Amino acid sequence: MTLKVYLSGEIHTDWRARIIEGARGLDVEFSGPVTDHAASDDCGAAILGEESDPYWRDHKGAMINAIRTRKGIRDADVVVVRFGEKYRQWNAAFDAGCAAALGKSLIVLHPEEHQHALKEVDAAALAVAREPEQVVQILTYVLTGRLPGRD
Amino acid sequence: MTLKVYLSGEIHTDWRARIIEGARGLDVEFSGPVTDHAASDDCGAAILGEESDPYWRDHKGAMINAIRTRKGIRDADVVVVRFGEKYRQWNAAFDAGCAAALGKSLIVLHPEEHQHALKEVDAAALAVAREPEQVVQILTYVLTGRLPGRD
Amino acid sequence: MTLKVYLSGEIHTDWRARIIEGARGLDVEFSGPVTDHAASDDCGAAILGEESDPYWRDHKGAMINAIRTRKGIRDADVVVVRFGEKYRQWNAAFDAGCAAALGKSLIVLHPEEHQHALKEVDAAALAVAREPEQVVQILTYVLTGRLPGRD
Amino acid sequence: MTLKVYLSGEIHTDWRARIIEGARGLDVEFSGPVTDHAASDDCGAAILGEESDPYWRDHKGAMINAIRTRKGIRDADVVVVRFGEKYRQWNAAFDAGCAAALGKSLIVLHPEEHQHALKEVDAAALAVAREPEQVVQILTYVLTGRLPGRD
Amino acid sequence: MTLKVYLSGEIHTDWRARIIEGARGLDVEFSGPVTDHAASDDCGAAILGEESDPYWRDHKGAMINAIRTRKGIRDADVVVVRFGEKYRQWNAAFDAGCAAALGKSLIVLHPEEHQHALKEVDAAALAVAREPEQVVQILTYVLTGRLPGRD
Amino acid sequence: MTLKVYLSGEIHTDWRARIIEGARGLDVEFSGPVTDHAASDDCGAAILGEESDPYWRDHKGAMINAIRTRKGIRDADVVVVRFGEKYRQWNAAFDAGCAAALGKSLIVLHPEEHQHALKEVDAAALAVAREPEQVVQILTYVLTGRLPGRD
Amino acid sequence: MTLKVYLSGEIHTDWRARIIEGARGLDVEFSGPVTDHAASDDCGAAILGEESDPYWRDHKGAMINAIRTRKGIRDADVVVVRFGEKYRQWNAAFDAGCAAALGKSLIVLHPEEHQHALKEVDAAALAVAREPEQVVQILTYVLTGRLPGRD
Amino acid sequence: MTLKVYLSGEIHTDWRARIIEGARGLDVEFSGPVTDHAASDDCGAAILGEESDPYWRDHKGAMINAIRTRKGIRDADVVVVRFGEKYRQWNAAFDAGCAAALGKSLIVLHPEEHQHALKEVDAAALAVAREPEQVVQILTYVLTGRLPGRD
Hints:
16% strand; Rossmann fold; alpha/beta; 48% helix; homooctamer; 5 strands
C-alpha cells in the first residue's frame, strides 16, 4: 500500500522537509505546491506575458499553479494542511475545503492559538496536530501499525 | 429555471439582506449558514452537552453547523462567498474550496485590499465582485438576460 | 429548504414517533424502514413464495427490504441511526456505513454503554446523541437557527 | 489482473493469515486494518495527546484508524468482512455498508448462528462463506477459473 | 416518498397495464419505452429521413428511442424488466445491465423456463417474480409496509 | 415525465422560437443561453467594471455567461446544439462536448454542408437533424410515442 | 498507452483466442469471464455448498462469477461483446448494458442475421463488427494509427 | 508525479512535436488523436466496410476515432487544445468541452485573431497560450517549479 500525501499550506518554515525526512522508509509519495514564493507569484506573467493590472497578473499565475494543485489533491489519499502563525493563508483553507469535498483524509496542522478560528476546518479533519512529527507518527501508524515508543 | 444560491462567509454586515432584498422577484432560492454568532458557537454544547475542553466544545458545534452547510452547498447552483475586512474567515475559504471541488459556480465578494491574498480563491471563481449589488446584477442577468441600465 | 431525514435502526421503542412528533412544524420529510417486524421478516416469502431453507427465505425478504432502504438512504440529507440496548443490530451499523460512504450527514443515537463498541461509527458521525429529543433539537437548529431555551 | 482485497472485521483469530497464506501464488494484494488491538485503541492518544474523557480518546483513535480503513476499502475490488462469534462487531457491519455503497464486491464470512441477524448484510454480498478456505477458493476461481478438486 | 418505476422489456402482453392498474393509489410514477412496435421501429426514418440500408434505418430509430429510455432508467428508483416467452429480447437484458450498473433496484419478471439462461441477470436483481401482480405487491409493501392477505 | 431541454448554439435565426412554439403542449422545460448578443458580450464589463484589454473584457463576460450555461446543460436531459451557416461557432461545439461528457442526450442541428466538418460532434449525438421542426417531432415522439402523419 | 479490453459473451468458439493472438505486440491487456462452461455453472455449489433448488444453485454461481465480471468491465477501456449464432445470450446483452452505462467504449461483434434484434445494443456501440479480425484491426488502429493494407 | 497530457486539435503543423521535444526529460506521458488525416477519415470504411452514403462513412470513422480520443482525454490530467489558423476545427472545441466537463486542467493554444471567437473556450481554461513553447514552459513549471530564464 502506497499512500499518496499532499502537503498544502504554509511555505515559510521547514515543516514539509521535516515530514518528508521523518517518513523516509515508509511507502509514501509526497506532493505539494511550488514553494518558491517568487516563482509562484510570477509564473503567469513570466510564461504567458506581463499584465499591467495586478489582478490579472495574479490571476494568470494562480491558474497555472492550480494545474499542479488540482493534480496533487485529486491524486492524494491524505491531504495535510498546515496553517502557520502569520498571514491569512486563505489558499490553505481553500485546499482543505477541496480535500474535504473530494472525500480525502484530511490532517490539519496548526498552532493552538488558531483553534477557535479553524474549528470548521478541524471538524472536517481526521486528525488535528501541532507538530510535523505527529504527522510522521500518523503516517507511520497508518502504514505499519507502529506507535511511537512501542515495538 | 430556479437558481439555488448559497451565501457563505462574513456574518457581521448586512450583505446577505442586501442581496436577498435586491433579488426580490427573481426565481432564486437562497440558503446560508446560521448567522446568529452566539448560537452558531454554542449549538453543540447546548444540544449535546457541555464540554470542559474548548476544543471539543467547538468541535461539536462545528459538526452540527456542517449539517446545514453541507446541505446548502451541495444543493446550490451558485455559491457566493463574502470575505469581509476583519477576522481570518477560514471557514469562508473552506466553503469556497468545497464549492469549487463540487463544480459549483463560485462568486467571490471581497474588498480590493484582499486581492493578492485571495488570488487562488478568485482564480476558481466565475465572478469577483466588490459589492452585494453586483451579485444582484449577476443573478438578474443570469436569469433574465437584463443588464443594469439597459432595457 | 426541506431536509430529508432517514431514520434507521432499532424498531422496538417509540424513538421514531418521538422525533417525528417533535419535528412537527419543521420542513422535514422523514423516511425509514418497514418497522413491522413480522412483515419485514416475511415479505420475501409472502410475495415471492416460501423457501424451505431459512437462509434463502431471509435473503428474499432482505432484498425486498433493500428496495426501500436504498431509496430512503440515497434520497436523504441526514441519516439518523439508533442503536438500542438489545440485539446485535448489524443492519443499523450497515446503514451507517452506507450513509457515510455516500457522504450523508450522519447522526448516531445510542446509550452511553455502547460508546466504546461504536467508536468507529461515531467517528463518522456529525452528532452523537443519547435521546430522540436531541435529534429534534438538532433538526430545529439546522433548519431555523433556534436553540433550546433561547429565543 | 491484480485483485485488491480488503480483509475487514474480527481480529481475534487467524483468519486473515489463513486467507493470505492460502492465496499465495495468486495475483492478489491484501490490505486490512491495524490488527494490534491495543495500538488500535491507543493510537489517537499516543500520537495526538491523552484525553480525560474516554469518548474523545476513542474518537481520536477511531479517526486515525479511518485513514487506513478508507484507503483500503476505496482501493479494493473485493471486501471480505468476517463476523466472529463474540463481541458486537459494529465496525465490521459498518465496513460492509461502506463497501456495498461504493459498489465493491462483498464477501461475508460468518458462523451459521449469525445467519438471521446478518441477513441484510448477506443480502448485499456476492458470497457468504463459513471458512477462510472458501474465500481462498473464491479468489482462486475468480483469478484462474480453477475449482477445488478439479484440474 | 414517491417511487419512480421504469417498466422495461416485453411489449406484446398487458403486463405494464396490470402493474399500473394494480398500483393505483400508491405513490408511484411509472415510465417505460414507446410500446407501439411499428412507431418504435420507424421513428428514425419517419422523422430524420428514410435510409436505404436497413442497418442505418434501425440505427437512427434505436438512437431516438434511447433518448426516452435513458431518461426513464436514469430517473428511476426501481427498474422492472420483463422477459416474455418469445423473441430474443436483448434490449431487455441491455436495460437490466444499465440499471444494475447505475445502482438501480432491479426487479426481474420472467417465466420459470428462462431461469438458467437469465441467471446472471437475476443475480443482479433484488427480486425475481413470475407475475405482474407480484410486482404490485412488492411496490405496495415497499411504500406502505402492507403484505398481501394481512392488515 | 418532464423533459428538460437546453437549446445551445446559433443565435441569429428563429430556430429556438420555432422549437418552443412547436413543442407547445408537450411536457418540456426549455432553457438556453442569453441570446441578446450585445448583452452577452457586455455583461462582464457592465456589471464588474470595464477592462482596457479586450481579452479580459471578454473573459469576464464569458465567465458570467458560464453560470447560466453550466446550470442549463447540467440540469438538461436533452441538449440540442444548432450550428448555423456562418461564424466559427466554437462555443456551440464546446457545449456539445460538455453535454457528451456529462452523458446528456445530444441532438445536433446543422445544414448538410457541415456534415464532414461536424462528424466527431455528430458521432456523439443521438440524432442529427436539418430543421427545427424535426427536433419538435423528436420531442413529441419521445414524450408521447406519436409520429408525424400517424395517429 | 495501455488499452484494457474486456471480452464478453459467447464462449463456444475461438473468437477470444483469435483476437488475443491477432493483437500480439500491441499494448493491450485482455480480460474476460471464466470460459470453462462447467466450472462457471458449478462454482457456487462447488465452493459454498450444494443447493437442492436449481435456482439458488445458479444464483450462488452467478454471483461469484460477477466478482470477476464486474472487475473486468469496470477496469476496461473497451468492452467487446460477441453474440454468437445460438442460445439466448442474455448475459452478453447485460454486460453490454453495464458497459454502456459506465461509459465504456463498446464494440459489438455479431452475425448479420442478428442486426434487427440487436439494434438497441448496436446503437450504444462505437463499432459493430462481424469478425474477430476486425476487432484486431480496430485495436491496432486505435493504438498505432495503422490501417490494414496501408503502411 | 507523472503528468498525463492529451494534445488535441489542429493536425497540420508540428506543434505536437515541438511540445513533446521540448518536454523531453520531464515526467510527462503524452497522448493524442491519430494525426494521419487520411487514416483518420478512412478508418471506419477500411475496417468495417465501405458505405455508399458519405454521412455514414464519416460516422463509422468518427466513432472508431472516439475510442482513442475518449481514452486519451479521460486518462489525462491536462488537455491542451490547439486551434490553428484555418478550418472550422469543431472537433477541437468539442474536445475542450469534454475536458472542461470532466474537470481536466485545460490549456488552450491559439493565434490572437481567434480571441473573441474562442472566449467561452478560453474562459474554461487554466492557461491560454500562443506558442507551443509556452506549453512546454507551463509543464516544466508545474512539474519542477522552474521558470524560463531563472535558476
